[in-house]
Known about the structure:
This protein has helices at residues 8-47, 55-86, 89-108, 113-116, 119-148, 155-163, 165-180, 185-192, 194-212, 218-225, 233-240, 242-251, 258-271, 277-304, 307-315, 318-330, 334-360, 368-384, 386-398, 402-426, 435-458, 472-476. The protein is an all-alpha fold. The protein has a single domain (8-441), classed as MFS general substrate transporter like domains (Growth Hormone, Chain: A, Up-down Bundle).
Amino acid sequence: MSSSTPTDQEIAKKARKAGIASFIGTTIEWYDFYIYGTAAALVFGQIFFSDELSSGVATLLAFVTLWAGFLARPLGGVIFGHLGDRIGRKNTLVITLVMMGIATVGIGLLPTYAQIGMWAPVLLVFLRIVQGVAVGGEWGGAVLIASENAPKGKGILYSAFAQQGSPAGNLLSTMAFFFLAALPTPQFMMWGWRIPFLLSGALVAVGLIIRLKLEESDAMKAVLARKKTVKLPIKEVLRKHWLLVLLGAGALPLAQVTYFKNTFALSWATSELGYERGTFLAIIAIALVVQFIVQPFGAVLVSKIDMRKAMLLMIVPELFLMPAMFFAIRTETFAIAAIGMCLATIPHSMFYGAIAGILARAFPANIRYSGLSLAYQLCSLIVGGGTPVLAQYLLNSSGDVTGVAVAAACYAAVSLVCTLALLKRTGYDPKAPSVAEKSDADELALEEAEAAAERDRRTPGTEDGPRSDDTPRDRVHA
């Protein structure tokens, strides 16, 4: 073995380091993103809009500002996907982290509608858009840093490190508001809600130190070394892989049902039902702990058995458990609501733990950041940010949660159909290379064979070039 060839132990150590760094970075980014949803449900409708509006309309407008971040996420995916496929994953992730931190602290410092009038919601939307652009570029890069540094055949498993940042960040944001919920309402509305946003500055500083020490992924190093970067990655994605993008986006609605639980349900339970803020935040926190525990097992399951069977086991139960959750919450009984939310959390959490690695396998390395980000953020644009808006609209229209429950089941049904179609194109065997990975390997082998042939031609005594029966392509496929 060449001394320059890393040992299995060195590869495993680097993979763990990349996975942990990916987890910490995404935890901070998702904390910043999720505290906005909690604040939108509890605070923003009352302090950033005119008090002449009804409570339901003000809450709906607050959820519309939440959606603005999702509308911006595809833009972030395109911008940072381009940079990530051109200059590398690491440098791009540093930029997204700093952007997110600045925007989040800025929200914590914003004056209210009573202080500056219409400028308050305008500035709120602007900063939310900056958050959306940042997280739109973050997710794909974090998944790739973890999966591309993984030992051979374990990309899906290691991508789960990045996915763990979502429940961890969500749990941190929920707990921050849980402790502050004990404040008297006037103090909470005046300054208490700002504390979680201002704490982001310290968290981002820690994340930045960790991220600056991170190494570039091996796959991206190979692309840069071979000068195989694409001038316009997004153009290549849309020209050659548009169907994979659409199938990926269609597979992901199940990953967005968290906004039914943690954003819409929080507002509904505390404003329409009889739950106290702290009580329902505690229910959400319990479900998030369950999510953090069970989520990695989705990646483990997909890595062990036929992917199609694994995904069926994770998606089909949600057709029934998500609707049941709303009726459990409607009982206004803590234990029943908590059990209902925890049961609904298990399948979609395991799905979320697995889907990132499956999507990453679908695209070639030199456009992977752009393809992965575009698929995820396209779904976020249409489904993620629109979920609380849709749910609140259905509730306002009918006065009942049944329509919301049906909508949640439809999310699972769409994910089921598109996930099966996606796997049909990329392959069911978790241990075998995907179509895109085979393409990368074939291209690399061809380049190496052509380089060897060029060396043969330049070697004295071989001026006539390679034999006709030993062409570079023959060597690749021998």
